[in-house]
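Supplementary material to the annual report.
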Amino acid sequence: MADKYSADTIITETQKRISNAFDVFDHESNKTVDVREIGTIIRSLGCFPSEADLHDIIAELEEEEPTGFVRYEKFLPTMTKILLERKFRPITEDLLLQAFEVLDQQKKGHLEPEELTKYLTQEGEPFTQEEMDEMLSAAVDPDKNVILYKDFFH
Amino acid sequence: MRINCSNRTSLKGRSMKAAILIQRWYRRYVAHLEMRRRYTWNIFQSIEYAGEQDQLQLSSFFSFMLDNVTQMNGNGPDLISHLLDSVVDPLTEEVRQLKYEQIVVSESYSGPRLSFPLSVTDTNALLSAFKEEQTLHGKYVLQLLYETKKFLKQMPNVIYLSTSYAKEITICGDLHGSLDDLLLIFYKNGLPSAENPYIFNGDFVDRGKKSTEIIIILFAFLLLYPDHMHLNRGNHEDHIMNLRYGFTKEVMQKYKTHGREILQLLQDVFSLLPLATVIDNKVLIVHGGISDKTDLDFLSTVERHKVVPFLDSFVSLEPPEPPREELEWQQVVDILWSDPKNQNGCSLNSFRGGGCYFGPDVTQALLQKHDLCLLIRSHECKQEGYELCHNGQVITIFSASNYYEEGSNRGAYIKLGPELVPRFFQYQVSRSTRKLTLHQRVRVAEGSALRALKEKLYAQRSELMAAFQQYDIDNTGRISTSEWAQVVESVLRLDLPWRTLRPRLARLSADGNVEYGSCFEDISPGEPIPPVTPNLAETLYRYRTDLEIIFNIIDKDHSGQISIEEFRQTWKLFTSHLGVAVNDQTIDDMARSIDFNKDGSIDFNEFLEAFRVVHKLDVKEQQQG
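Predicted assembly:
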């Protein structure tokens, strides 16, 4: 068995993880992916970039003349750096809970769908209607018609 | 980063930060789900195509048997004669028709009673009956098939249609036995009629449980509106495919008395289905695709009912094969089996075991040759029900929603008017009334895909363990993720993201290595298996489907029984072809042990059942639930 602690091994393992994730979206099997899937790939590798962060990354990854595709040769070094430098660290449950509590200004212990919708579609990096609908369908308690955010966390 | 920092930070600033955080978190959550959805899709597709490769294996086994036929004469099973035996019909057409008319339908039968020539009353009765889960009496099925056969005989191979007689033509893709999808299409788009013509582009049967109902409806409309209802043949309109993928079984289960005759008639009807449709001399519609050899003029001259893809190609040709017949077979197989690819060129479709991969240049050349502007085909499942490729010159249309699993994909159909600009309509059948969340849909589909994948692992267990152990010299039971992924990929030969899948398939130990034995943990045999060694059991499990097909061929009268001798000979041949060493004594013991009533014959369905597996976690759920 290889020495699991050598730097080389870590880099190789990281690159293999990246390669795997990339392949899932490489529909034509020619080592390119649609630029619109880059965000999904990066996030599925465990990173939590903001939309603005992604925008910057994609600008870096695109060709001189944008083709709509990103090549693996460009993606690999950029992504390796992101993972090894541990950029865009995960958002912890504590932090997420705090965020919900901030939005719950009246300290009700829950949020109304309209409240959450207002914040998430108007502030920050706004959700599309589709994103909002999908989140509500998963988050809203069907009986009480509110978002019991405390229940999301163990 | 803390949100509730200094008091000077405005409320608005804090709520904006909170919103961004939640948005960032949620988008990551959705991406994670999307990844799972994607690889679930990859799993289903890989396994499906691997199954089609098995089909090629089986065909090569049959040709292996043909090569060895001299050794088997007198001693071997009657398998060869069964295979060579084209449906020789001793009855003339008139006698056959009379025979069907004379079948008596009991008073207690409450289903539709068809009268020929069919009328709208009959098709309405059929639709109502099938919505209520009724079965059409065998007599009417036989009559319907007989009339359909008569009708199809006078059709050409390539049908030329025009949009000038109606506003728009509706084109549907694969249905694969999903009656719900067909009914949904009729509901959304209206029933076939002179004002509402339809083309169904093949693969009506197999996999789904209502293939019989589908073909009954389609053939009924075909007879009712011969100028406005058109059916193209698909690669599943073929009796060997039906043996493997479920249609034969469905017919035999629903029609105990007349099943065999229905199947024989179906064989003829399928072989008589037209191969292609052309609209306004501009749009070509075929089930699979094309190759660089495709020529519509040549295709029109082929005697299509004599050309049977796969098996009979090996059987019916006497060496040296007449070059024309070989070419005819090639043309038909290409039409029914090919898939488009993104790179230029035309290569053999090794995934499917038949037809080609054709590139944009091949499409362009064919369209130019025949002065066409568009190719519409089906044959491949697409998440959105349809997909364009080759710069919009090729459209794939697929009409069976939830094909792999609940929530896996939408179905779609095309409407084409005189301006020849396609409009797409999508839909998805849903079993539950409450809409599932994305998470729930992904979870269900993923569960199904992973179960199928685990069964694949189980089927190759000894090979996998042997390969794992090569990396595990100290016998710790653990190897690195890299090594695990490498082994699985090379043994299973499925092109999947194994590293990404690993958490769903195998456990990690405390030191971060993979406990390779854990991949096989939650599968076990369904029933106590006959006294065989684990290796033999595994081989039997792996080739269950092939054996089922072979046994079904031997068992001409579909009784579910074959003789012990036939079983022994077949198994011997099969294993020698596979290169698997099994000694005679073991086979004898096994054969004797499964002949439960000692009458010299075995119920092979029971036998095959013994080699089914169960997923332990499912069993636990059932016990608790």
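The helical segments of chain A are 7-25, 38-44, 51-61, 72-84, 93-103, 113-122, 129-139.
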